[in-house]
Amino acid sequence: MLKKYFYIILLIGSIANAQVKILFDATKVQMAGSADWVIDADVHNLYTNNTLTTTGTESNPQRTPTPAQSTITASTPETYWNGALSHWAIDCARQGYTVETLPWNGRITYGDATNTQDLSNYKVFIVDEPNILFTATEKNAIVNFVKFGGGLMMIADHTISDRNNDGSDSLMIWNDLMTSNTVQNNPFGISFDVADISQTTTSVANLPTNQILHGPPAPTTCTVCGNVTQAKWSNGTTMTLNTSANSSATGLIYKSGSNTTGTTNVMCASATYQAGKVVAVGDSSIPDDGTGDPNDTLYDGYITDAAGNHQKFLMNATIWLATNSTMKNDDFETSLLSLRIAPNPIANKELKLYFNNSTNLKSEFTIYDATGRLVKQFHLIESNWQNGFQSLDCQELNSGLYFGKFQTGATSKTISFSVLN
Q: What is the pLDDT, as a whole number, of residue 322?
């Protein structure tokens, strides 16, 4: 019987902006009550008595905003799209990113080839004030999305902000995701506090090289990015960091007068987790651009509040999330650049993993399935590299999405591939 093999794809270097796709979630009734946390909606008919229907007066956003984002220019007004997050989304489109909405009947999955909006197809997932608990499957999908290289923006709001009156507000929903998923408990080292604060603060962490606080480095250009010097919370919450759970958890903006190197009274935070990144924000008013659903009362927190600093912060953060992780265990060294590209999905029976092992370092290749479960590990022996490749027997792999972590010396790279039987 012939052995089953697979091919691996590796995309070398940073992803071009045109290839970066950003998904804004609208599956957790982000349109309930006075909220309108969507980038564009052509109709407003979704909710009646807290029930998802085709009648009502709330935003019903579609997957692709209209008019087409390809026609956006530097002078395009944010009212080009109809949503309270439209200005943020248009700034992303100006940056060269592709933006989409996950509509109310969309599915949050990771590694599900039947879902055209599976998170594996996106670089950044933005969830602004969810109002329905994530299911067990959704929680695992989101954590694995970050684990394998995605960028997650978590936006919460103040306590008792349950807009759809189902007993769960956004800070409870985020904390539930982080403490009750089955991938890793408290993977990001961040928890939202049960709090309700309103204030303008200038307590910004002294982190001179931090890209979220000071903008992306060259050669990336962003006309609305820059130094963040203040923030305004209009009924928001704070966070507590647990650096024992995740040593990378970092406070960025703090309550007025607070210690800007501490783990409490945090208003904005960031963390890395495995190959991915997370930004957490404690107030849903900061991306609100003051326009959108005519049935809601909205105001401009994105530009007017905090002297325009919210626009800088959110775009700095979005670009950071869309950029590959710079954690030590995800860095490229020269030796890793020699990994060869092969067809994907894999539909034949031969694998040749090409690598120029010029450093003579011991290498490993570990395979995980879409749930994060370790499937198989190979110890790549130097003497087995013949003509620059090794054949790896993966007879037991079924059809589906997998992740391979190639490690040589102190550096590694996690890559995704598909198998078709």
A: 94
Tell me which residue has tokens 């002078």: 75
Count the alpha carbons within 13 Å of 38 in the hemisphere toward its beta carbon.
34
- pLDDT value for 376: 85
Q: How does pLDDT run across 294-317, given as a tens digit for each residue?
A: 989 899 999 999 999 999 999 999
| pLDDT at residue 9 in the model | 37
> How open is the CA angle 285-287-290, to the nearest 5 degrees?
75
Asked if residues 420 and 347 have their Cβ atoms less than 8 Å apart, the reply is yes
- CB-based burial of residue 414 (10 Å sphere; 0-12 exposed, 13-18 middle, 19+ buried)? buried
Distance in angstroms (rounded) separating the CA atoms of residues 329 and 302: 35
pTM: 0.80
Rounded Cα distance, 210 and 133, in Å? 32
Q: Under a CB-based contact definition with an 8 Å cutoff, are residues 326 and 211 in contact?
A: no
- Contact yes or no for 28/2 (Cβ under 8 A): no
Q: Which of 43-47, 84-88, 292-296 has the highest mean pLDDT?
A: 84-88
SS3 257: coil
For residue 340, the Cα-to-chain-centroid distance in whole angstroms is 27
Q: Which residues pair with residue 22 across a beta bridge? A: 99, 124
Sign of the torsion angle spanned by Cα atoms 153, 158, 163, 166: positive
Beta strand pairing status for 363-369 and 374-380? Answer: antiparallel
User: d(Cα 125, Cα 49) in Å, to the nearest integer?
Assistant: 28
Q: What angle do CA 118, 120, 124 make, to 5 degrees?
A: 100
